[in-house]
Amino acid sequence: MDFSANGQVVVKICGVRTAEAAVAASEAGADIIGMIFAPSPRLIDVTTAQGIAQAVSASTPSATSIDQGIASSAHPPVSADSTPSEFFNARSQHLVDMRRRLGRPLLAGVFQNQPLEHILEVARSVPLDMVQLHGTESVEMARMIPVPVIKVFHVDDAFSLDGESDLLRTFHHWVILLDTKVAGTSQQGGKGVSFDWTIARKLSDKGVPFLMAGGLTPENVREAVLVGKPWGVDVSSGTETNKVKDPSKILAFVHGAKYLRG
To answer: Is pLDDT at 10 greater than 70 in this prediction?
Structure first.
């Protein structure tokens, strides 16, 4: 399925550490702003995240309050016998609708192999619209988190959709994220390393929406979308200059992903 057929791929700008970068992402048209709460050079604390959340709302006149955002993420009904394609399409469409209703990007917190209690406390304190589980967490954890969950599945040479039984499990995570597995480090994500986008295309061919990350930049995001056919793209280091978010690169990335014909 070509999720980019309408020219409006969902864009997540991750690793945002300042209010200025978050506002730049919002003004550029990003749909999700990711903040890192796991060990990383981009780690921020709750107080900083609260300032980012307030800045995003304040910069978007039509935005609802952050607390209303949490309320609007209530799980919409989906048939218990839904296929993976039906389930993940319904959930991804709800997120698109939620972003439209709120009038601002959704705020996602990224965690990696951290205690559930910590995740819940951060989600409540910021507050977050979404949680991203970026480690080896069981998909069962997603059922214990009251906001929509993005679950990462790391792609390497041995990756196979048939071998990832949890990837297509319904009524757990809302969004599948495919990201590059980087050898030799426990810290995954934000490394600027790509994987074979034709692997992602196989998931698209099943009619299942997903986010795609790993080595994406303003220069290659159009090709990545055309090859992988993702529902959305996720970028961190590709929108930075000297390890700092660059508004011009954010704008170029969003435009490159969303407006394939422009």
So the answer is: yes
CA distance 141 to 250: 32
Phi, psi of 246 (to 5 degrees): -110, 110
Tens digits of residue pLDDT in 75-131 = 667 888 899 999 999 999 999 999 999 999 999 999 999 999 999 999 999 999 999
Tokens of 233: 């793209």
- What is the radius of gyration, based on Cα positions, of the chain? 17
Q: Does pTM top 0.85 for this prediction? A: yes
Task: Give dist(CA 188, CA 180) in Å, integer.
Answer: 8
Cα separation, 37 vs 96, in Å, equals 24
What pLDDT, on a 0 to 100 scale, did the predictor assign at position 157? 80
Two tokens, residue 31: 């749909």
CB-neighbour burial class of residue 62 (10 A; exposed 0-12, middle 13-18, buried 19+)? exposed
Question: Which helix (H) or strand (E) element contains residue 195?
Answer: none
For CA atoms 53, 121, 42, 106, the dihedral sign is negative
Q: Where are any strands of DSSP class E within 78-219?
A: 106-111, 130-133, 149-155, 175-180, 211-213
Q: CA 222 to CA 218: how far, in whole Å? A: 8
